[in-house]
Design a protein that fits this description.
This protein is mostly helical. It has helices at residues 2-21, 27-46, 56-68, 73-92, 119-131, 139-152, 156-160, 190-207, 227-240, 249-262, 267-274, 279-282, 284-300, and strands spanning 167-168, 173-177, 183-187. It contains 13 helices and three strands. Strands 1-2-3 form a three-stranded antiparallel β-sheet.
Length: 304
Amino acid sequence: MHNLENQYRRVLESFLNYILVERNFSTNTKESYNNDLKRYLLFMQQHSRSVEAITAEDIEEFITELYNLGLEASSMARNISAIRSLHKFLLGEHTLTLNPSEKIHQPKQARYLPNILTIDETLRILDAPLTCQPPGKYLLRDKAMLELLYATGVRVSELITIRQQNLYLNEGFIRIFGKGSKERLVPVGSSAIAWVNRYRAELRIALVQKNSDDYLFLNSRGIKLSRMALFDIVRKYTATAGIEKKVSPHTFRHSFATHLVEGGADLRSVQEMLGHSSIVTTQIYTHIDRSFIKEVHKTFHPRG
């Protein structure tokens, strides 16, 4: 371990000297590289990796750790840039024969954070169909759809293609067919179940036509609701609730996942409910959670 420490110290000193003298970088840039690469090299040292033994997988593991620490996208990009520069330098110095950082890219989920609703905002939109005056003709359908969006976190395409034969409401589940026809069972809470049952009994039965098929949610012509219709419904009740954020059906999916993570749900369970093929995709919601925590700290801490 001591030998690794000496090796990494020499490597870092050589690189910092190179960017300062030969590349004419500013002192501030040098200090930024120094801080980022110290953390990177310490990580490799702790994992008993010599400079020559570092692989692309090792670098990706380090980037995942940065992501889990809640670094902003700009900080992630800066770290990755520093790592690439270091390995390119080592390649030029013939310390390395291959560059393990060559194909390393910033994780997609770090590039943006989706818009989410607070729990209070969510509940206001869910209750909006009940506050419309006069009451809307499709109040029960709209209320059931909003409740189901938030209760399950399903995608737009998944919601509008739910068939009654895929409802297992007595057991508290819905069978969803997601991307690539992948099938999953998603739990549904009691509030959504109650409203779906009421919609089916009181309104859907009146909307059914010969060409209705078995789709759960029908429009005025008795056929499957379109994507745009669902977007319009969500926009309508967002405005009714007095929410000024840009809200789409997908916002409910993001809010569903974020509220679960904030409440302590484990990522594997959230991954399963969302139908993500990789947990890396689901990890964005831990990032949102940490961003929220950091914002609370900045707002309320005396030295924030």
